[in-house]
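Here we describe the complex-level prediction in full. Unlike the single-chain runs in Section 2.1, the three entities below were treated as one system.
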Amino acid sequence: MGRLRVATVWMGGCSGCHMSFLDMDEFLIDLADLADVVYSPVADPKEYPENVDLCLVEGAVANDEHVELAHTIRERTKIVVAFGDCAVTGNVTAMRNPLGAVEPILQRIYVEAATIHGRIPFEKGIVPELLDRVAPLHEIIPVDAFLPGCPPPAPRIRKMLEKIVAGEPAVLEGDDLKPG
Amino acid sequence: MAVKTLTIDDKPVSAREDQTILEAAREAGIGIPTLCQLSGVANLGACRLCLVEVAGVPKLLPACVTLVQEGMQVFTNTERLREYRKMIVELLFAERNHVCAVCVANGHCELQNLAIAVGMDHVRYSYRFPKLEVDTTHEKFGIDHNRCVLCARCVRVCDEIEGAHTWDIAGRGAKSHIISDMNVPWGSATSCTSCGKCVQACPTGAIFKLGATVAEQIKDRTRLDFIVTAREKKQWVG
Amino acid sequence: MDLSDLQEIAQKENAAAKPMRIRCCTAAGCLSQDGQALKKALDEAVAAEGLSDKVEVVGVGCMGLCSQGPLVQIDPDGPLYEKVTPADAPSIIASLKGEKCKARVGDPTIPFFSKQVPIVLENSGRINPERIESYIAVGGYQPLCHVVREMQPLEVCDLITNSGLRGRGGAGYPTGLKWATVAKTDAERKFVVCNADEGDPGAFMDRSVLESDPHRVLEGMAIAAYAVGASQGYVYVRGEYPLAISRLKTAIAQARRLGILGTGVFETRFDFRVDIRIGAGAFVCGEETALMRSIEGQRGTPRPRPPFPAARGLWGYPTVINNVETLANVPAIVRNGAEWFASIGTEKSKGTKVFALAGKITNTGLIEVPMGTPLKTIVEEMGGGVPDGGKVKAVQTGGPSGGCIPAERFDTPVDYESLAQLGSIMGSGGMIVMDEKDNMVDVARFFMEFCMDESCGKCVPCRAGTVQIYEILTKIREGRGKPEDLEVLRELCDMVKQTSLCGLGQSAPNPVLSTLRYYRHEYDAFITAKSGKAEAEANA
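The structure predicted for the assembly as a whole is:
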C-alpha cells in the first residue's frame, strides 16, 4: 500500500478530539511515516481533496456547511470515522435540540440570557445557517467506523488507527466503547 | 427447600427451588445484563435485558422473575439475545438525553456500562431529544429527567425499604415520568424523609446529590445491601 | 327463587305481552341517531291511534345493522324499517291499520341477517335489556338455576371443556381448562372477572352485548363462579360505555332483588356478588394482569406471566378472567349441551363468533357467524362489500394487535389457527374493511400510533420501540425513507414482538409486519425517491 491520505475534519465540536489526537505524542511521528495529512484544521488546504483514504470527523452536524462538507467527505473518502461523541451521538452540540428549532435557541442565547444588547445577530451569507436539529454524522452520511469518547483518549484513537492501517475491521470493543 | 439442577449455557448448576434463573446464574458466575433489577426490592421484569432462552419454551423469559426448574436448559448469551440487548440499550439512549460527557454519573453509570457490555458503538435509531425538567428543589438532592431510564428502582426502594412511597410514575408510554408525591416538586414532597436511598439506587445520573458535578456522583450500593441484609437476615454487617 | 318461580315470571311476562310488539333499537348506535326521541314518538303515536291495548313499543338492544339505524321491527312477521326518524312514527303506527307506510322498508332476508347463527346475540334486539323479566321470559337464568341446584362444580368445568369453548378475547385459551385450573386450586378466596374493556378501534361487540343482553353476561359469570368456587365477581368495563354501565347496574340490582345474585343464589349455599369497576380509558387495561391491577386500585400496568391469574390473580388469589362474549356463550352451552355447541364451527374452533364490521363496508354493524365462515362470506356477502361499487382491498382483524388480510386470501375460514397463519389474530372481533383507496403504510402507521400512545411505558421495547417504529413509518410516508429503513423497521418489529412484556407490545408490530408481507410494494413506492415524494405530495 502507498502512503495513506488522511484527513481530519472539525465540525460542530470543541476541537477536544483534535487535541486528543495530538496527545498521541510520539505515535504521530510513526504515523507520519505512513500517512500524509491532506486536509485538517491543523493543515493548510482549504478544499477537501479527492481520493482520501481515511477521514476522522470531529463534531456533530450542526449547520448547512457541515451537511455539504459531510457529503463531499463521503464522496471522496474510503473510510469515514465518526471521531468522538459529538460525531457519534450529537453529544453536547445536540443539547440545544430539546429547545426546539433555531429561532427559539437564538432567542434563548442571545436575548433571554444576554446581560447587555440583547439581540439576535444576523449576517446573511457570512456564517452558515444553523440546522433546526443537530445530528450525529451517521444520520447524514453512511459512516464506516465509530470512535466514541469525549474526547476519545489518545490510546483509543491510536488503536483505531492501527486497526485501519493493518486493514482489520475498524471496530472497538470493551472499555474502548465508553462514551463520555 | 428442594434443590433443582439445571444447565445455564451448558454449565451444570444447582439452585434452590425458590431461586430465579438470574440468581442461579450469578451464583455460578454467569453474568446476565440487568437494569431494572436491584437486589433487595421486588423484581419487575421491565427492562427486558435479562431475557434468556429456555429449551422447549417458545417465548423468551426474563431471568429475574423466572424460577429455576428441574432439567431446565437455559441459554443466556445467544446471538439473538445479544442483538436484542444491544437494540434495547440503543433505544434507551435514543429515548432521552443521555449526554455522558457532562453527566454527574459519568464513569459510574450502569447505562454507560451496559453500552460497553452490549458492544454499542453508535445508536441506529433517531434520537428523540425530548424537553425534560431538572428538579433541584430538594435541599439535598436533585432529579434530572433527561437521564432517567424509568427503571422504577427509586419507586421501589422508597416504597419497599424506606416505606415512604414518595416516588411514583405518572403518564404512560413515552410520556411516563417519575413524580414525587402527587406530582409536586421534590422539595415540596412532604412524604420524603431525605434518606437518599433513591440516590444510591438510581442506575444513572438521574437522581444525584446536589453539588455533584461531572463524574462525581458515585452510587454506593453497599448501603442498600446493608439495610436489606439487616432487615431480612438480621445481620448488621457492612 | 327456584325453577318454578322463574317459569312463573316467564308466564306472567308472556301473558302480559300485547298481540303486537314494535321493537325499537335503543342500543348506543341507534340512540346516537335520535333513537330515544323515536321510541317516544312511537309511544305517543300508539296512544294517539288508540292502540295502547293492542300494541306495545319495546326498547330493545342492538338489532345488528347499525349503518341503517335507527331500526324498528314489527312483530309478529311485520316489516323492518330502516333509518327511521321520529317523524316517521305516526306513519308506522298508521300502517298497522293498513295504511301505506312512508318509512324506509328494509329487507330482513338479506345475507347480513340470513347467514347469521345467533347464540351470543340470540336475545339482542329482541328483549328489553332493562327488564329482568324480559330475559327470564326467554328462558334466562334457568341454566344458572340448573347449575347451582343440580350440578357439581367440576361437572360444570367439564361441560365447558367438552363444548370446546375458547376465549373470545383474543388468544383463544380453552375456557373449561382455565376454569378447572382455578376450581382445583385451594384458596380461601377466588374471583371471577369479566373483561369488558373493549379497546380496539372499530370493535363494539362487547358493548353491544352488555347494552342488549346484560343478564346473559351476569348469568355466565355466576355459572363460572359456581364452577370455580368464587363468591365475588367484577365486571371491568370501560368508562366510555356509559349505557352499558347503566344497564349492567340495573341488571345487577334486579338480579339481586330476585335472589339470583347475592347471598344464597337460588336459595342454595352458593353466594355470588358482582360489582362494576370502571376503566379510565387505558387500552393496556384490557390485558388481564394490568386489568387486575386496575381493579385493585393500582396503576394499570401488566406484570410478567407466569404466574397466570388462574394461579395468582386479584390480590394474589386465583382468578378467572373471561371476556364478555366468552361468558355470554356459557348459558347457551348449559341449556343446549356441550355436544350442541361442539357441533357448530370447525374442528379446533367451536361455536360462533361475533364480529363488528366497520370501515369501507356497506353494512356496518354486528354479525354472529359460525367459526370457519370464510372471510369472503362475511365481508362480501353479509357486509355487502364497499359502498358505491368500490373494491375491497383488505380487512384488518384483531384491531391494533391483528394484521391486514388481503382480499386474495378471503377464502380463508375465520378461526383462531387460520388467522394466525396469515399473520393476524382472531382478536376480540373487530373487522375493519379497507378499499383500494386506502394506503397500507397509512394503515400500519395509524395502528402503530395507537399502540405507541397506549403503551403503558413499563417495558423498554414497547415504550421506546413503538416510538421508533412510528418514526420510521412517518419518515417513509413523508417520502424521506431510505431502502435500508425497511430492514431497520423489520428488525425493530421483530424485537418488540419477541421481547415486550405483555400482549400489547408483543402484538403491536403485527399491522406493520402483515402489511409489509402483503403490500411491500406500497412501502417501496414511497421510498423510491421520486415517485414516493410525488405521491406523498399528491396525497397531502
